[in-house]
Amino acid sequence: MLLLMKAASLFCLLGLPLAAAAQKLPAHDPPVTYYIGVAQAPLYRSAADTAGRPAKYLPSQTAAVVVGRLSPRWVVVELGGFRYLTPADKLTDYDPADADALPVDPRTHRIAYEGVVRVPGATQAELLARATAWVAQAYPLANAVVDPGPAAGQLVIKGTQIATFRTAYAGVARGSYAGVVQHTLTLYTKDGAYKYVLTDLVHDAAGTPNLRSGGPLEQEKASLFGYAGLGSRASWDELKTTATRDVRRLLATLQTAMTLGAAPAAPNPGEF
């Protein structure tokens, strides 16, 4: 009997590392909060468990903090100090690029999205005309002021996009209007290529009741509600994530318009 008890104790001790290992799902990314869609999301303790029953479920509309990616299909969420796998398609607005470091200009220390795109065969006049038409579609409700640049073939756009974050109504998190995020987008065109520089991202509460302007998005935290608690930090992080995701999508539509939907040629940093 004593031998059996010792053997059982040894088995339990050996089993502990295995149980712990099952919880060590990758957490390579900074935490980003998403929300479960209309259907509940299954949570699995490991990749091997995904063939069976989930350990638990996250109800619809609840928050899910993503801390890693196992594959394009599966993401790692953290809940109650443990990590679980859940399908990425159960999350609303999931974009793996949300976890990437923001592009910061080493000279200005401002967030700056910048790139050169070659469009073989297109003249400067054609590219400028495409850019002008794109602005009219990309910024509805007169949400942009467009000026010619200091040189021929340039446009300077002072744009605004609606800012949002989630707030709880009757226990359900719903998207809320949170003012606007302003930016400056400068477009340079020449025969066969264009360059974009989008920077000066600044949050303005725009008169939203009980909300303060956060200011430049480079800030790690901002007191949106007049206090610096965790709730304020979480809302600021979410606002920044949504705003920069909108910027990436805006620039994707720019590329489609400038290249007429064709795959652009490989960029050449020395173009401009």
Structure description:
There is one protein chain. The chain has helices spanning 2-23, 124-138, 230-259; strands at residues 32-36, 41-43, 56-58, 63-69, 74-79, 82-87, 91-92, 113-118, 144-148, 154-169, 172-190, 193-204, 215-216. With 272 residues, the protein is an alpha+beta fold. It has two domains: 32-94, SH3 type barrels (Roll); 97-260, Alpha-D-Glucose-1,6-Bisphosphate, Chain A, domain 4, CATH 3.30.530.80. The strands form three sheets. Strands 8, 9, 10, 11, 12 and 13 form a six-stranded antiparallel sheet that branches. The protein has a five-stranded antiparallel sheet with strand order 6-5-4-1-7. Strands 2-3 form a two-stranded antiparallel sheet. Helix 2 crosses helix 3. The radius of gyration is 24 Å and the shape is globular. The protein starts with a helix and ends in a 13-residue tail after the last helix.
Summed up, the helix count is 3
* Quaternary organisation of the protein chains: single chain
| CATH fold description of the largest domain | Alpha-D-Glucose-1,6-Bisphosphate, Chain A, domain 4
What share of residues is helical?
A: 10-25%
Using the CA coordinates, give the radius of gyration: 24 Å
Fraction of residues in β-strands:
25-35%
CATH architecture assignment of the largest domain? 2-Layer Sandwich
